[in-house]
Design goal:
Shape: elongated
Distance between the termini: 128 Å
Largest sheet: 9 strands, mixed
CATH architecture of one domain: Sandwich
Number of helices: 4
Length: 464
């Protein structure tokens, strides 16, 4: 008993003494504070047929656009608050829009082949509501007044139509699988971003960052990210897989280029760092279309349970207030046959989505000619000097049927038949500054073909 008591007393003394000794701190690992990363979520989806276009108007001025893959679609700003989207090749890509009021919108653009939608695929929208993904929002119709135009009896020669080049079909260098580099050469670049023009360091091909947050991305799509502070440096391991494009002092667009893995680190002005473990996946494209693909993906995720990755918080910025000029008129043409259409007021702007399908030429200040070049569908937009505008689908066929103009299901065969009549409400803010010179009888019209603009001059004194 004596021996046992002495041992216990010694143990108690050791424990009591050790309690007064300051513990030796272990080497603390470096803690990296995140940069407060948020994302502008995609809430709107816009479907566009190849070679066609959709015209969108927002409340404020457009100050910046971002396109994840210009091979699939391209946005063209034609007025301070109006832009149109042209479908170039089938696929899915992302469009980012910023306005001068601080609103930001990320829109998913889906380009499909003309006529690829079937009644069976249209009925899938009901079943799609049963899965977790749900249906994204579309675009509301613009209340803008329509044009008052008719088919003219004037005869013109097709030699007055200029042969225009279509959209470029060349692929960016980073999209070529065979051209990918086996080894990334480290380099450092410096860029300046508005409004203050401060420099941002871009490092490529380095492993100086640790993986932190997983982010999933599809090839040809993008995600719009924002941080709390100002970006001073970004580090990307493999720019062939993904790339972070700094578009403002605290916003970065994450582009998906090629399937694979890479790491992107973002550093802000306060010394905070955050690294993203990016996985770029090859988009699954079903031959039945996008609706079937989304339905299949939603059912699989609902039944088997999809892992939630890259759950970034939603940014607090308000979305854009946007409307669309819906297509309500269809013009049917034959190949190599020109037709003239007359508008009640003077034309100040025209847009042709694909000049390989149809060409437009100004005949007089209030008349334009259309020439069918190849079988297919295209979209044209026409503005007059009273602020009215019209979205028209041009369908070119090889049929020997007479060219006609259809407005809301009515075929107009007589030049006196009116197409769509709307009230004349001026909207001068979106029109060109100088559209005519009445003293000389000269009228100027903006003619957009794809993303190129020409100024066409016509005279009021031209004979009919």
């Amino acid at each position: 008993m004596t021996f046992r008591a002495s041992v216990l007393s010694r143990v108690a003394v050791v424990i009591l003494c050790s309690s007064f000794v300051a513990p030796t701190a272990a080497p603390a690992a470096e803690v990296e504070t995140d940069v407060g990363l948020t994302e502008h979520k995609r809430n709107v989806v816009v479907d566009v047929n190849r070679s066609e276009a959709r015209l969108i108007q927002i409340r404020n001025r457009v100050i910046r656009t971002s396109v994840s893959d210009p091979r699939i679609f391209e946005p063209v700003v034609v007025a301070e608050n109006q832009f149109y989207i042209v479908g170039k090749n089938p696929g899915r890509a992302t469009l980012g829009i910023w306005d001068d009021a601080g609103c930001v919108e990320s829109i998913e653009i889906r380009v499909t082949k003309t006529g690829s939608k079937t009644p069976f695929m249209s009925g899938l929208s009901f079943f799609k509501k049963l899965v977790s993904h749900g249906e994204k929002q579309g675009l509301a119709a613009s209340p803008m007044s329509k044009l008052d135009f008719t088919e003219s009896a004037r005869k013109i020669d097709k030699s007055m139509f200029i042969e225009e080049q279509g959209w470029a079909t060349s692929f960016p260098e980073w999209e070529n699988k065979k051209g990918r580099r086996n080894k990334i050469e480290p380099r450092t670049d410096t860029i300046c971003v508005p409004p203050d023009g401060k420099e941002i360091i871009i490092r490529i091909g380095t492993e100086a960052c640790q993986r932190h947050r997983p982010v999933d991305l599809q090839a040809s799509q993008s995600r719009l990210l924002k941080i709390n502070g100002r970006i001073v440096e970004t580090v990307i391991k493999d720019p062939d897989v993904s790339e972070g494009v700094v578009v403002s002092e605290n916003e970065i667009v994450l582009l998906g280029k090629h399937p694979g893995h890479t790491v992107l680190a973002i550093c802000d002005e306060f010394g905070n760092k955050e690294a993203l473990d990016i996985t770029v996946k090859k988009p699954f494209r079903s031959p039945l279309g996008f609706r079937f693909t989304e339905l299949t993906t939603g059912l699989i995720d609902t039944i088997f349970g999809a892992k939630k990755r890259s759950a970034l918080r939603r940014s607090s910025e308000m979305p854009l207030d946007k409307l669309e000029q819906k297509v309500e008129t269809t013009i049917e043409l034959r190949e190599s046959e020109p037709k003239v259409f007359r508008v009640k007021n003077s034309i100040v702007r025209t847009v042709v989505s694909d000049p390989k399908v149809a060409s437009l030429s100004m005949v007089s200040p209030n008349e334009f000619g259309l020439l069918g070049r190849a079988t297919g569908n295209a979209t044209i937009f026409v503005w007059d000097d009273f602020g009215n505008r019209e979205a028209i689908r041009v369908r070119v066929t090889k049929s020997s049927n007479k060219a006609s103009l259809t407005a809301k299901g009515k075929v107009l065969s007589s030049p006196n038949d009116r197409a769509v009549v709307g009230k004349q409400e001026p909207d001068k803010d979106s029109l060109p500054e100088a559209d005519s010179d009445l003293s000389n009888g000269v009228h100027l019209t903006e003619c957009w073909v794809g993303n190129q603009k020409d100024i066409v001059q016509t005279r009021y004194s031209d004979p009919e």
